[in-house]
């Protein structure tokens, strides 16, 4: 069994959309790993491989097998999965 967190957040430094997701992860006291990626959009191949897009933030949740991007979608997912109505 790995000591790595089940959630990985792909993000940029000082990205307000990424920070929105970070705040939500902290609100639910979820352990996560940050992977800071290339600032240049055309160089974000790591994110493209995992989510199919080069946009950030992107999240991989190994607890549920979910991979997604777009901060609003991620926040909604975290609320549903780990919030008051969530199973975790």
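^ structure tokens above, recovered residues below v
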């Amino acid at each position: 069994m790995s000591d790595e967190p089940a959630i990985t957040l792909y993000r940029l430094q000082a990205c307000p959309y990424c920070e929105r997701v970070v705040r939500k992860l902290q609100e639910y006291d979820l352990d996560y790993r940050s992977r800071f990626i290339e600032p240049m959009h055309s160089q974000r191949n790591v994110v493209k491989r995992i989510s199919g897009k080069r946009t950030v933030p992107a999240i991989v949740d190994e607890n549920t097998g979910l991979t997604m991007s777009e901060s609003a979608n991620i926040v909604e997912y975290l609320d549903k999965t780990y919030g008051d109505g969530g199973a975790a």
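The longest strand covers residues 7-11.
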